[in-house]
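Morning run. Coffee first, then this:
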Amino acid sequence: MRIACVGGGPAGLLFAISMKLRDPAHDVVVFERNEPGDTFGWGVVFSDQTMENLRANDPKSAADIEAGFAHWDDIDVHIHGQTITSSGHGFVGIGRKRLLNILQDRARELGVRLEFRTEIDVDPTVFADYDLIVAS
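And here it is:
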């Protein structure tokens, strides 16, 4: 199957990785308009449950991501001069650029083609040869 993924952020990269893991014969291309090192935003926070889902989908990516994460269980809410602590939630956070680098490396390792600096035209014939187009 030929798959085009428009958008090289975390969602697009994770989708591309997932498709290659399901069937290495898939021809998967991620199109991203920005440079490989460009990012918008500061960081990404996942719950422990999200990490469990990621581990089930791709243990290697999960291990690489977890190695760069900061973990915390408590959430402090500051209101009217008081601090209220809520415990037991379980979250992890990582810099967005580091996360993108990990996912780009994993995608390449699996044979996903990453096309940076590529603006996508709205002309539908651009994707005529693809079986599936995903916008992320």
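DSSP finds four helices and nine strands in the chain. Good start to the day.
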